[in-house]
Amino acid sequence: ETVAVDFESPLAEKYAVETGSLIANATVRNMLLDRGLLEIAQRYIGSAPMVDIVTAWYSFPSDAPSHQAAQLFHFDLDRIKWLKVFFLLTDQTIETGAHLYVPGTHRDGGIDEKILSKGYVRLTDEEVAARYPKDTWVSMEAPAGTILLEDTRGLHKGISVQRDHRLMLQFE
Question: Which residue stretches of the chain are H helix?
Answer without folding.
Answer: 19-23, 26-32, 35-45, 113-116, 125-129
